[in-house]
Amino acid sequence: MPIPELEGVIQGLGHSGYRAKQLFRWVHQKKINNFQDMSDLSKAFRTECDTRFELPQLAVHEQHESSDGTIKYVIRLSDDKKVEAVYIPAEDRQTLCISTQVGCKMACAFCATGYQKFSRDLKSWEIVDQLFVVNTPKPITNIVLMGMGEPFDNYDEVMRALQIFSHPFGPQIGKRHITVSTVGISDKIEAFIKADIAKLAISLHGTTDEQRSKIMPINKKYPLTELMDLCRSLTMKRGLRVTFEYVLLKDLNDSDEDARRLVKLVRDIPCKLNLLAYNENPFIDIKRPAEERVLAFQKILLEAHLTTTYRRSRGRDIGAACGQLTTKKADKPALPSPL
Ligand code: SF4
Fold it and tell me: What's the predicted TM-score (pTM) here?
């Protein structure tokens, strides 16, 4: 629970709200998960906590290390379902990519998690505990909610987890060091921006409604044209800069014409574009474009003076890169590409 919620519970039991802050600090900063070890609480209060509350923990089921230093953790939940978290080391930051759902309802055509289908939402503690359960070589400095699941499809639990991540009595991952990635669930975007609790990245992956709907079926509900209007109005109202993610899929959305359409789409929106080359997986027959194609695509964006980065994938050899996360085994022929 975030502190205000915990204070309500503790005060409801007739104790000072200060006890909530103490409990929160023990759990989220000192990583103690046994009430009896919380030495600055009275014995009677510790025993009351033992009878009233639980401090459940996730467990690392498997761990796979990539030659580039990336580590994929397969994490077991209390009902035996599994999610994945990925540690991505870099010189200036240590990032953990965290999951928010078991599977996903969004069914993006290129994504192994979407292929796995949806099983359930994660509770806030299951989102937060991924940070605590992984034993990374260096302490985590950045969090991205880009693992399994669509964060805004589990909005309330994600927002509770974000309040915990950034709290000064918690793990203290500053809000500028946390990024939440969405397929563009427009009716949650405005509330999220207002909450000012983390950075936002929106996945585009297509430049027309027809094309994007085939790659990301959610586009039928939240069409590109409306999404871009929302981004335009939010950036004007709030002086924001939006980050757009665009995964290049060979022969599906990676042509020069696509790049030129992308320029037109975002030209009047203060934004940054992150390009990724698709990471193949055994479930879906979509290919990764050649490096030269990605660079030619990027060149068109750069020539239009759009801030554009091309993120090299990490952890492809262990199935830990974007679009590859799944706890399902490849047991059927790959699905044909959608376009
Ligand atoms: S890309 Fe993200 S939103 Fe789309 S199916 Fe995969 S996990 Fe879900």
Answer: 0.92
